[in-house]
Amino acid sequence: MKDWFLGLEPRERVFVGGGAVAVLLLLLWALVINPLQASRAATAERVETKLETLAFLRAAAAELAGAGNMPAAGPELAGQPLVVVVDRTARAAGLGTALTRNQPVGEDGIRVRLDEASFDAVARWLATLGATAGLSIEAASFDRTPAEGRVNASLVLRQGLQ
After folding, report:
1. Residue partners of 56: CB distance under 8 A and separation at least 6
2. Which residues contact 96 (CB under 8 A, 6 or more apart)?
3. DSSP secondary structure, the chain, as one string
4. CA-to-CA distance for 157 and 5, rounded, in angstroms?
5. Helix axes 34-65 and 119-128, enclosed angle (nearest 10)
């Protein structure tokens, strides 16, 4: 390859060298710079989405802080299994159709899945569960849905957490 290159006329060497530099620059752009820019844009979009969700949750928390109209669980739930407590209180809070999964986790915990639920109703329901059944949130994941004020929620609730 070197002999071939040195056998070219000086003008041809400049042309081949320039072409090689152009190919290297295109490869650098295609393999390094463009993917980095795309990754940066995707990351910026995810951060923007997370900030919007945070603002929504803060506004909802402020609204709920002033709301004192939580539905009561009632004394009939005392001593009931967590599955029954969660099901009955969810129905009382208007979340009966949103409750799609209700599965025990050990003796003192339960995993709950809510789809297309009103965020305000979920927050009031969780406050009710804490006040009346002694359930605390161990883990929670909320995803906004296209419908305004609605979320998909995955929760792990446990008794005795503080």
Report:
1. 119, 144
2. 90
3. -HHHHHTS-HHHHHHHHHHHHHHHHHHHIIIIIHHHHHHHHHHHHHHHHHHHHHHHHHHHHHHHHT---PPP--GGGTT--HHHHHHHHHHHTT-TTTEEEEEEETTTEEEEEEEEEEHHHHHHHHHHIIIII-EEEEEEEEEE-SSTTEEEEEEEEEET--
4. 73
5. 60
Using one digit for the tens of pLDDT, what is the confidence trace for 62-77? 777 665 444 444 555 5
Tokens representing 37 are 């820019």
> Kind of pairing, strands 109-118 and 99-105?
antiparallel
What pTM does this model have? 0.53
So what's the pLDDT on residue 71? 44
